[in-house]
Amino acid sequence: MIIAGLDVGTSKVTTVIGELAPDGVLDIIGEGSVPSQGLKRGVVVNLERTTEAIRQSVHQAERVAGVKVERVLLGVGGPHLKSVTSHGLAAIRRGQSIGAADVERAIEQAKAYPFDAELELLHALPLEFKVDGQEGIRDPVGMAGVRLEVDVHLVAAGRGPLANLRRAVEEAGLDIEALVAQTLASGLGVLGPEEEHMTVLLLDVGGGTTDVAVFREGRLAHSSVLPLGGDHVTQDIAQLLKIPFEEAERVKRKYGAALPELADPELVLEINQESGSLGEVPAPELARIIRPRLREILHLARQSVDEALGPLEIKVNRVILTGGSALLRGFDLLARQQYGLPVRVGKPHGVSGLTDVVATPAHATAVGLVRYATTLPQTAPEPRRARERRGQREEKAKGESIWTRIKEILNNLF
């Protein structure tokens, strides 16, 4: 089975193609990443540029894999995503054990949460069940009880931004097999086996936004999107050093550090200023520009978790950093100082094939999208474009059948 994950981000568009072998091993056989110029903070602002970037990314991955992609699992991100944990309840008749239909009733009640009309539900993810007050149940089917309760994490997206993203993908000639929140996909991409028994905070620091996700025993228990990312760090450098954005991005990637003590005190950087002349800046000074914005991102992430679940230091066992900005030297050390928790940089794992290409924090979401496909039913709904093509074929066949019948009647008459 061929699977394609499409991660449309603010700074880049990445396509990863995987092949699921009969033995369950996921081989990564194709990858394509191109700059993204049609999005701002995860939202499409230029449809034509976004569509072209998607085409280029998919084409690159197809050339590497040697296969044609028609359907993709599409990652959805941006500040328009909203999430909440909702409670559902179902009564069970006495003398009967809990069945799958009872579980579905409880989940459906939780899904009835009154979201704004401009939001479309993406995910309803059960966290844990409770039977007659007994907590911590992961699968209640077959148990005895009269009251079934469930906490469900709901993730919804703005209908407008979602429609524009869908259109960009479809204009690129692709069907959408499933829409997946980037926070969920990133977790699927980097969580290790031992972390599926912990409470883990995952920060996916992209170009325009930072996805905040808390996974409790492998299940998404909290998610939010911060309107800050790596591009804001670059903007700070550009503004304070009076250099173009592209030059600030180059300097950040090559010499940047999250902590001044990690920078070489003897190193003086030559920078191309907006006036066209060369300037100089000590490497520790560059780190002092970078650090405040990263601290702000970490602070806002902590605030999000504190308000939803309680004190981060008490509720969370480990922190994982993903996204392109996770590669910034010392970012993990800064997070460890600020949170007082173990921190690691997350890279996709548990796959074979092009592991050297995708084993970076920047590929966490795209690889997670491919892995998400393995959780879908094999009888997935037929994509819209495929339905349209099938309908056109059926209409054409119907028309040909009617014309054949008319010719038969005319032949019999004459």
**Corresponding CATH superfamily of one domain:** ATPase, nucleotide binding domain
- What is the share of helical residues? 25-40%
Coarse structural class = alpha/beta
CATH architectural category of one domain: 2-Layer Sandwich
Please report which band the strand proportion falls in: under 5%, 5-15%, 15-25%, 25-35%, 35-45% or over 45%: 25-35%
Q: What value does the Rg take, in angstroms?
A: 25 Å
Assigned CATH class of one domain: Alpha Beta
Order of the strands making up the biggest sheet: 11-6-1-2-3-19
End-to-end CA span: 55 Å
Oligomeric state:
single chain
Q: Shape, please?
A: globular
Average pLDDT, to the nearest integer? 89
What about the largest sheet? 6 strands, mixed
The CATH topology of one domain is what?
Nucleotidyltransferase, domain 5
User: So how many helices?
Assistant: 12
GO biological process, one term: FtsZ-dependent cytokinesis
Membrane topology: Peripheral membrane protein
Subunit structure: Self-interacts. Interacts with FtsZ.
Function: Cell division protein that is involved in the assembly of the Z ring. May serve as a membrane anchor for the Z ring.
Write a concise keyword list for the protein shown above.
single chain, alpha/beta, Dna Ligase, domain 1, Nucleotidyltransferase, domain 5, six-stranded mixed beta sheet, five-stranded mixed beta sheet, Cell division protein FtsA, ATPase_NBD, SHS2_FtsA, membrane
